[in-house]
Each structure stands twice: as structure tokens, then as C-alpha cells.
Amino acid sequence: MKLLFILLGLILLIIGWFYLDFTLGYRKHLKIVRKLETPILQGNFDIFPHGKKLFADYFDELKNAKQHIHVLFYIVKNDPISQEFFEILKGKAREGVEVRLLLDRIGSFSVKKKTVASLREAGVYFAFSNRIKLPYLFYSSQVRNHRKITVIDGEIGYLGGFNVGMEYIDEDPKLSPWRDYHLKITGESVSYLQQEFFVDWQEYGEKVPDVTKYCRMLPKGMVRQQFVPTEAGQLEARHLNLIKMANKSIMIGTPYFIPSKKIFHELILAARRGIEITIIVPFTADHILVQEASYRYLRRLLREGGKVYQFKNGFYHAKTIIIDDRLCDIGTANFDKRSLFLNKEINCYFYDEEFVARFKEVFVKDIHDSRPLTLSDLNHPNLFRSVKEVIAGSISYFL
Q1: Which one of 16, 131, 287, 295 is separated from 278 by 20 to 30 angstroms, measured CA to CA?
Q2: 64 lies in the same domain as 189
Q3: CATH number of the domain to which 290 belongs
Q4: Considering Cα of 167, then 171, then 176, then 181, what sign does the dihedral take?
Q5: Please, which pLDDT band fits residue 395 given cuts at 50, 70 and 90?
Q6: Could you give the residue numbers annotated as active site?
Q7: Average pLDDT of every residue of the chain
Q8: 282 shares its domain with 146
Q9: Which pLDDT score, from 0 to 100, does residue 177 have?
């Protein structure tokens, strides 16, 4: 009995430490976070929903770089495509091209010390972002840099949902084909994306004395848009504004549908005022409990007249919001609490109806590759699922 009380005391102590660590860490983060967003820009954008086509184009552009390559990823694996990626970067660095690579410390945990050493030996400037650090070990372990940015020669940019690994080019039997949305960018928007890269690089990598030398005066493109990086809860207000401005329809694509209380309340109000709500989520999950965490929200939306589709042609990892066929958001943020409150994200907001119409064709194609989710599907008795839903609901903030 005495041992039981000791164990119980230790568990309570650990829980208390987690709570205190997280609370104080979040408060400190709120004090230092800055609101950053670009003005309305005009760029040119290509949409890549397939990994093989994206990486064929991406690797070609990397190989053609003449001056500098600046890359930020959340995940880079230790597998054949990741090694090919590293070899390209090392080769360009040996040619005299300035190469900077910033990877999230936990997301890219499989990148070995030997790999990092070989990159640096070849001349690549390398750094890990968002390392776990004192005094808030638990909080810092949860705040991840989920952004994916590449800028090549100050003229070509990439931004979106793909990371670097075999699953992203359809080489994972369970999750293939992988469906995502990634943007290739040219025009004046690239210079601002370059600046956003250096915001993170200056925090974690070697300081750069003059960032402005990398930013070029580029011609305006055809599409009006804006980059918005977020962290420490900033994304919630953005999503709330998007939902409130809808007059006809809201379309959401996300691998993880775990909204905050405020956002879900606003979605319910939108449904009740006659807004058509359409959501695409995966049929197959890539993480434990994420589907079960979404079910309580999806049931309520279905009762309110919303439409929910489960993508069946592979794994759906895309992130988007489309409002009234006149505005859309494509970026790195999932529609979940982790992206809303913990991760560093960057999204691209488009204010161009022609581009929105072009992108909506991709989204509608994904609806056609999905099956409708019904209330009967979610309410069918299943004890194991019900237990998982309870567990998922209690830790949904961290999924």
C-alpha cells in the first residue's frame, strides 16, 4: 500500500510539473511572439497535388540553382529520397552555391549526426530549429516548426504540405498515393517568402549580417495573395475571421479535424445561418487517435447539415480552406489544435477568384475520390472506438 501511495504521488507530481511547465512556457511565448504578415502581393503559382511530380520539379530547380538555396522543412527522413535530397544540396554547396538547411529538431529526428556532419563538411549551413531547452522542457518539446519553405536564387519559392520522405512520393504501401497541396511560386511574392525564411533562420542558425542582399525586386505576378506566418495561438483568430466572412460556402481539407472550441462554435453558427459546409478528411489515418479525436466534431456538423467526405484514393494530407469561391487558404497548417496553438505555421491566402476557381477543381476532384461519411457510420456501436474517442478527447491538444 505504501508503494502504491508513492507511485500515485510521483504520477501527480509529474502531471503537476507538466501542467506548470506548459502553462509558464506558453505565457512566455505569448509575450515574445510577434505578429508578422506580408502586404497583399502579386505572384504566379503552380499547384502540385502529387509528390512524384513535385519532387521531380523541385530537384530539377535545386540542381539549376546558381547563387543560393534556402530550405526549411518539418520532416526529412533517413531514406533514399532524403539521401538524394542531401546529395543535391551537398553538390550545390561544393559548386559554390550558398546552401542553408533548417530542419525541425523533433520532426527530423531521424537525420543522423553523421549526415549533419557530411552536410557541413560539404559547405552546407545547417541548423535544427525548435530544440528542446530549459527551463520549459515539456512546452518546448511540443512547439514544432511545421513550416515548409524553399527559396532558390531569390526567384523561385516552394510552400505547402509535403515533407521529404518515401511516403510523400507514394512509396509507403499503407499511405499511397499521398495527396497534398504544394505551391511553386514566382514573381514578387518570392522576395517576401525569402524574408520569412530568414526570420526562422536568424533565430536558430548562424546570424546573417545583411538579409536584404538576398531579396530581389521581382516583377508582379498575376495572382493577389498574402503570406501569414503564425504561432502561439495566432492562427485561431485568422480562421475565425475566415468563417465569419462566409456568405455561401466553407470548404475545408485537412488530415486532422480537431478545431478549437471557438472555431467549432463559429462553424456551427455558420451552418445554422445556411452556409454550406464541406469537409474532406482521410479514410486511412497516419497517426493513432487522430480520427477518433475528430468524430465528436464531425457528428455535430453532420447533424447541422454539414457534408463530410473521407478520401479513399490514398492518404489525404492536404490543408486548405475555401470561402465562397472567392478566397482560399493553402499552407502548412492543419485544422487542429496543434497547428492552432503550438506549431509554427505559414499559410498563403489567395484573393484572386480565377486562382480560387482553378484550385477548386483540384478540391472537387478529391471529393470525387472520397466517400460520404454519415451519422450511421459514426453512431454504429463500437466499444473499442468509443474508448479511443474518450482517450483522444482528453489529449486532443497534443495530437
Answers
A1: 287
A2: yes
A3: 3.30.870.10
A4: positive
A5: confident
A6: 146, 148, 153, 317, 319, 324
A7: 93
A8: no
A9: 95
Predicted TM-score (pTM) of this structure: 0.95
pLDDT for res 368: 97
Total number of domains in the chain? 2
pLDDT greater at residue 301 or residue 1: 301
Residue pair 334/319 in contact (Cβ under 8 Å)? The answer is: yes
Among residues 175, 197, 228, which one ends one of the domains?
228
User: CB–CB of 148/318 below 8 Å?
Assistant: no
Residue 45 has pLDDT above 80, yes or no: yes
Question: Residue written as cell 512546452?
Answer: 139
Q: So what's the pLDDT on residue 170?
A: 95
17 lies in some domain: no
Pairing, β 98-104 against β 125-129: parallel
**Taking a C-beta distance cutoff of 8 angstroms, is the pair 156, 145 a contact?**
no
Whether 336 is covered by a domain: the verdict is: yes
Q: Which residue has the cell 459546409?
A: 277
**Are 138 and 16 within 8 A, CB to CB?**
no
Domain extent at residue 164: 41-228
What is the band of 14 on the pLDDT scale with cuts at 50, 70, 90? confident
User: Strands 320-323 and 327-331, how do they pair?
Assistant: antiparallel
Q: Are residues 213 and 239 in the same domain?
A: no
C-alpha cell belonging to residue 72: 526549411
Tell which of 210, 228, 246 closes a domain. 228
